Amino acid sequence: MSSRREFLQTIAGAVVAGGATRALPAWGEVEAGPSISGKEGMIVRSVRFLDLEAPADYLTSFITPVPHFFVRNHMHEPSALDPSQWKLSIGGEVDKPYSLTLADLAKLEARNVTNTLECAGNGRAFHNPVVPGVQWGKGAVGTARFSGPQLKMLLERAQLKSSAKHVMFRGLDDVPGKVPPFIRSIPIEKALEADTLVATKMNGAALTRHHGFPARAMVPGWVGAASCKWLTEIKLLDKPFDGNFMSPGYRMPNQPVKPGEAVKPEDTHSITALGVKSVIASPADGAKTKSKSITVRGAAWAGEADITKVEISTDGGDTWNPAALDAEHARYAWRLWSYQWKPAKGGDYLILSRATDSHSRTQPATAEWNPSGYLYNAYDQVKIHVEA
Amino acid sequence: MWKPSAILMLGIAVVMLSPAFWAQSKLPSSSLPAGPMQAKANTACLECHDAPIIAQQRLSKAAWTKEVDKMVKWGALVDAADRDALIEYLSVNFGTDKAPYVPARSSAAKGKH
Fold it and tell me: Which DSSP letter does residue A64 get?
């Protein structure tokens, strides 16, 4: 039977938060959980502009349902986007610039690519010292089956000039104030890979507005920022696009730097592929259990590489044991994993996970600190209490 | 057995109907903490953002200075005379010594998405 305090908390939570989880902001007010179309139970990092994170316990299915897929918006979503008027133009360093309607795009042969998409800033909140930006925890990551024509096919139809070295994407984000527009570019080599798409579908259905309807770039294995949403222009350039979201945005130091140290722009490079990483989805951090048999489970991914091994430590890193990798896998998708563990006795435990990939990279004990908090990939950890 | 619960429910209902209860409850889109620069912060920051993206930061004064100057460059309306006080307000309320921010969770709304 619930205590009176629990009952009061339940009532207050249900009323104030409209059924969503209660939250107590630092200054002590009760905060309401906002209603967001098509998104249930997500951690709200921001509403304007919409930034939603999946709780760790959502990272347990090979394909992430769209309602549980993270959202990272830099600006307002397009306020007025008429699909019948939408066009995608392809120009720049090409001989035959052209544009496509949504109906044109739908007639083209589509390719399916199952891709784990992760925000470059996922895990930013764990960097020490803290850095500004959306304070993502573990869940700015998800895996979906994206479908649409190959970017390569669209580019070749425009007849590329030899000077076409980079491919710029521009979306229809509503830009507030004097904020630079969200425009980025990728090198032509990545653009011409077979699995780089202009995606119009996600998990078999049309993209939702939060995920870039009617079309988005899909650059598999790379940080999410490469996969521009609400795509309306593709432009071939002779050099990388010069704009805020290419520099100073989305860059890492060329050499490791001391935590807190400033980095000169000329000592940085643009972020491309994701690193090797695993997260623990279950048990939850802080969990208390009476169980004598615990399944530790989670996901591991490595951008353009394959996961070869996930190891678990239940003694704070002194010893490591291999987790079982699920059979389901795809070229750019995460591997789900599990580890069956029988704690010898009750007490507090620190459970760690670390992944290794086909490029011989292993998750480090400490992530490489950088001024913008990108690519956090230290061992994941949860602390639990097993009752005696 | 049920009578004490019914009384408790009634009590809670009375509490929730009181203005004092709702004065403690604010939507995340509208609430920055009270202080001498609250109104300025509302104008400068909440024109584009909502409060949680600010409230989840735990930054030093130097880092807040960089953020405010970047946002002014990007169109935030901050009088030069208010700049230092706004940085102070943000540093005091969302400094590195503050307790961790606890985010809300979304509930699904019907409609186009």
Answer: P
* ipTM of this predicted structure: 0.85
b/e per residue A83-122 (b: at least 16 CB within 10 A): eeebebebebbbeeeeebebeebeebebbebbbbbbbbbb
| One domain, residues A161 and A234 | yes
Asked, for residue A64, whether it belongs to a domain, the answer is: no
User: Which chain A residues in 171-230 lie under 8 Å from chain B, judged by CB atoms?
Assistant: 176-180, 208-210
Q: Check pLDDT > 80 for residue B111.
A: no
Nearest chain B CA: its distance from A140 CA (Å): 14
Q: Cβ of B107 and A24 within 8 Å?
A: no
Q: For residue B109, what pLDDT band results from cuts at 50, 70 and 90?
A: low
CATH at A251: 3.90.420.10
Domain housing A364: 277-386
pLDDT of res. A34: 87
**A199-234 pLDDT tens trace:** 999 999 999 999 999 999 999 999 999 999 999 999
- Is residue B16 pLDDT above 70, yes or no? no
Same structural domain, A255 and A302: no
Residue pair A250/A346 in contact (Cβ under 8 Å)? The answer is: no
The verdict on B67 touching A (C-beta cutoff 8 Å) is: yes
**CB within 8 Å of chain B, chain A residues 53-112:** 55, 67
Number of structural domains, chain A? 3
Which of A270, A290, A309 is where one domain is finished?
Answer: A270
Q: Judged by CB atoms within 8 Å, which residues 69-88 of B form the interface with A?
A: 73-76
d(CA A49, CA A78): 12
Residue in A closest to B93 by C-alpha: A27
